[in-house]
Amino acid sequence: MKALWAALTESVRAALGLLRTPAFYLLLLAAVGAWVAAYQQKRVYTVVVGGLEDDAYVAGFHDKEKTPAFPYRWTEGLSTVVFPGIGNEPVELSLVTSGSRPDLPPPVITVTARGLDFPIQTQPQLHTDTLSLPRGNLLEDDLTVRIEAPTFNVERTTQSRGRDLGVTVLSVSVAPAGYGLRPLVAPPPGAVLSMVVALALFCLSICAATRRRELALGVGALLAGAATVLTVAARPELGLLAPQLPALGLWCLGLAVAGRGVLASLLTDGTAGARYAVAAGAAAFVLAFALRYGGLTYPQFRTSDLVLNIHNVEAVLGGDWVFTEPLTDGTPGP
Asked: Second label for 193, Cα 20 to 30 Å away, from 93, 126, 160, 273?
C-alpha cells in the first residue's frame, strides 16, 4: 500500500511540475493562435436531411425516407437544423424543400436564423431558397436554423394513427458570404475554450502517466496540430465533439494517475526496463480509454463503429429491411 501511495503522489507531483513549466502555457497560446487562423479557412457546410449522418444535426423531423434519387425528411410543426461550431461570419443559407401536398397548395414556411425571420413560399416541386445572414452573436457557438411550417395530417397505411406533416426538406447548406480574408471569422468561444481545457488536461495526463514533461509537451503539440487540421477539414464534427472533451480529459488525468500508481506498485524492481514498462502501460491505458470513451460520447459515433463494422447498417438506415435469418418460406438470409 505504501508503494501505491508513493507512486500516486509522484504522478501528481509530475503533473503539478508541468503546470510550473512556461513551455506548457506557450503551447496553449500557440494552439489557440493556430485554431483562430484555421477558422479563417472558409468552406461550405451541408446537412443532407435524411442522409446517413444527419441525426446529430436535426431535431423535430419525422423519420428518414428516400426516393431512388435522394433521401429526405418531413418536417413537423417546428424543426431545427444545427451547424455546430462553424464560426461566426456572414453566410448564405440555402434550403432545398418541397411543399407538395395532396389536394392542398404549397404552404408558406418561416425560416429563423440568427434572430431573423424569413417567410418562404414553398413550391410543389423541389426548389432552392437562398437567404443572406449577417454575422450573429459572438457568444453563440452554433448556427441554428428553425423551420416552422403549417402541418396537415395523413393516415398511415401501415398504422392506425396519422402524422402531422409540414414540408419535405432535402438539404440545408451554409456558404460564406465571401471567400477572402475579410470578413474575419470569429471562432466559437465555447468550442475553443473546451479545446484549450482539454489540451491542457491531456498534456497533464501524459505527464502523470510517463513523468516526462518533454513527452507531454510533444504529445500536446501533436494534438493541437490534429485539432487544427480538423478545424479546417471537419469543423462541424469537431464542434459536436468539443463540449465532451473537458470531461474526457478529466477522466484521462484521473486514470493516468491511478494507472501509473497501480503499475508502479506492481513493478517495484526499479530497473530501466521496469520504469519504461510502467510508463508505456499507463500511457497506453489512457490512450485506449480516450479513444473508446471519446468515440462513445461523440454524437456521430455510429459513423465509426457501425458503418465500418456492421454489415447492412447503411441499408437499414436508408429505409430498407434486412432479415438476418432465413424467412419462414425458406428464403435464405440476409
From this structure: 93
Long-range contacts (CB closer than 8 Å, 24 or more residues apart) made by 260-264: 260/7, 260/8, 260/11, 260/208, 260/209, 260/211, 261/4, 261/5, 261/7, 261/8, 261/11, 262/4, 262/7, 263/7, 264/3, 264/4, 264/7, 264/10
Rounded to the nearest 10°, the torsion over CA 132, 133, 134, 140 is: -170
List, in order, residues 6 or more apart from 43 with CB less than 8 Å away: 176, 232, 235
In whole angstroms, what is the distance from residue 53 CA to residue 49 CA? 9
Task: Report how far residue 42's alpha carbon sits from residue 56's, in angstroms, rounded to the nearest whole number.
Answer: 22
pTM, full prediction: 0.82
Whether the Cβ atoms of residue 327 and residue 267 lie closer than 8 Å to each other? no
The tens digit of pLDDT for each residue in 248-268 reads 999 999 999 888 888 777 777
Q: How many residues does the chain have?
A: 334
Confirm if 265 and 324 have CB atoms less than 8 A apart.
no
